Request: fold
Amino acid sequence: MSLILGLETSCDECSASVVRYDPTELKVLSVATYSQISLHRPYGGVVPEIASRNHLETINPMIDQAIAEAGIRSADLDAIAVTNRPGLVGALLVGVTAGKSLAYALGIPLVPVHHLEGHAVSVFLDTDRNTVEYPLTLAIVSGGHTNLYIIKAAPELWPPDVLKRSLVGRSRDDAAGEAFDKTAKLLGFPYPGGAWIDRTARGSDPRAFPFPRALPQKATYDFSFSGLKTAVSIETEKLKRAGELDKRLPDLCASLQEAIVDALWTKISHASREHGSRTLAIVGGVAANSRLREKLETEWKNAGFTSPPLFPQMKYCTDNAAMIAGAGAFRFRQGLVLRGRDLMTLNAIANPEI
Ligand code: KG4
Ligand code: ZN
Reply:
């Protein structure tokens, strides 16, 4: 059994979490998250300088809260896991520096974690991960990434470059979450707009506006969402001129959401058949989308796959430190850690290769 403290400051969430790992379970004991969304909202997106300065103020209170709520003492911790890549470099440096200081002071190892590996592990938090059969199709759909992976083995056995090795498709332009956020902005919703579109679309007609599905050919598992943004912008202007935007807003949201969800399903199904996947997992902020969850449940079953798709619990879809502690726990068990003065060499990387 090991106790891992996770830290996440790669973007606009400042989060700390304690996770207990044993060979059968990844149990989240606490998560303390300060979301900066309201600070960035007036600017319509994340302002990096504001993000890093705010992380500096909130990281220690989050760490104290996570340790207290877990009912442990800091001396009980076995390791500290921290997101060191990818992300806003100034924001990452706050978590990395806090992690280094605490790990060094406590004399325990520091585990660098790739943010996307954290999202991947979010699906194993507080669940029985022995039920997962491999190969696993994994879709990471967030504000920064739309990546499709075919993962061959359980996280206990992931090689250090697991993401690089298993990537089969990615967005060539905007990420799925970015497509939600940018179209939501055009429609006048506050940042981040994904959840607003989700809510406004409920019960409306997803076929009202025939928005484009890019790259439909089977030869690639890549995605492209920038055309959708243009199409929504043109349609929005037309509706505004006709004075019909308010009336058609729910159908517009349902149709653009369907275009994103459809594009995701098309590539997921092709890649899963081609690679003989047994299980499907969808993680990241966009995995909170209700239509995506509904569609993948039915389509995956209709396509003849037997085990139902896996989604993280809602609270683990958007950025949080529990997923970082979880990924860190697997890395810690594999000995992929930094110890003693070596841990001082850890740096933040804004844009690693994958
Ligand atoms: O994973 P995440 O918290 O941050 C990144 O690592 O990027 O994802 C944030 C993204 C935002 O683009 C947000 O609009 C989107 O997730 N999102 C949603 C929903 N909830 C959050 N998109 C669609 N439907 C939702 N319900
Ligand atoms: Zn994320």
